[in-house]
Amino acid sequence: MPSSAEELRDAIADANAAHKTIELFGGDSKRLMAGPVAPADLRISTAGMRKVLQYEPRDLTISVEAGASFSELNASLARHGQMIPLDGPWAAEATVGGMIAANISGSRRRLYGSARDLVIGMKFATLDGKLVQSGGMVVKNVAGLDMGKLMIGSFGTLAAIASVNFKLTPRPAVGRTVLFTFDDIQSAMAARDAAIRGVLHPVAVDLLNAVLSAQLGMKGVTLALQFAGNEAVIERSVREAAAFGPMKALSPEEEQHFWNSLYAVTPRHLEKFREGAVVRVSTTLAECGEALASVDGPSHAHAASGVVRGWFTRPDNAAKWLAAAVGRGWKGVVEFAGDAARPNLQLWPDPGGDFAIMKEIKRMFDPGNLLNRGRLYGQL
Length: 380
Hints:
The chain is α+β, with helices and mostly antiparallel strands. 32% of the residues lie in helices and 24% in strands. The protein has helices spanning 5-17, 70-78, 96-101, 109-112, 115-118, 148-151, 185-197, 210-215, 231-241, 252-263, 265-272, 288-293, 315-327, 355-365, and strands at residues 22-25, 42-45, 52-56, 61-65, 82-83, 119-125, 131-135, 160-167, 169-170, 174-182, 204-208, 221-229, 247-249, 277-282, 299-302, 307-312, 331-337. Strands 13-10-12-11-15-16-14-17 form an 8-stranded antiparallel sheet, sandwiched between helices. Strand 6 and strand 7 (131-135) form a beta hairpin.
């Protein structure tokens, strides 16, 4: 457990010199995500690297070490009216480096973007003993190739993230979530279309099928819209959203409970079902309703970005649905799976035409295949 970027660099360089395989991780909170790590000679955690290196509140930028708690960092930023708007399962337990290496984003991606939009710089340690600085502490930086972007979503298969620089977002003065209930997905999609094509700018636009709605104590197909801004903006947004159908505006306590419950679905599902799996597909906006309807069990869509998830209790059912989704032209992976399910699943059945480039990048960074072998959905 190194305590600095230099110690991290030396640890992986020494392992490389001795031809030892390495497991890289932060807080180990997302161990059930993506591919299982092959047995390694050495385990290296960045959880001891927790310092804030530089913070410029007026410039809306911050640089923090990879092992810092993501939730504690956001709580600290909240005191300055700022935030890093990433969220998702296990975000409360995750480290900064883990959130970035796994490319975690949730419902607010619709307005704020993903990690690739929020990371403006990064320092990472390579196997050949170098500390590489990519980007910087300015929001607009066009000098050179931004190699840090390669680390986002790489699951530690290329190098070890030492620190991350973020572009911060002002925390809105007021937030409000409204829920709509529909008898079928088609009606919910019509309301979704009205929400994203009109003058309103919701932070999140989420659809829950009837099965998932029932799990969260609701009936029918649920459309959730989240708005943020000042009081006048919220009042107008809620007033105009009422035209979409019968609506319930949540109190602040109800709002927090709803979103927390939604992000807890995956951890609870995998705790309950030893062979359970969560499949994620990316569709067009027009097709996300079709993907949502094709899941027999609980399913959920970030309906303004086309990301759809299905929860399955058996690996064969997950594999069958994923194969059908890929056959329809949707890109998909088994996003989370229990240890008992993974041997029976092809986690990434159709990597795509750019996979050859990914393999070449892996070879350039890690020619001996030492880092987090198999972690990238069993393919790298």
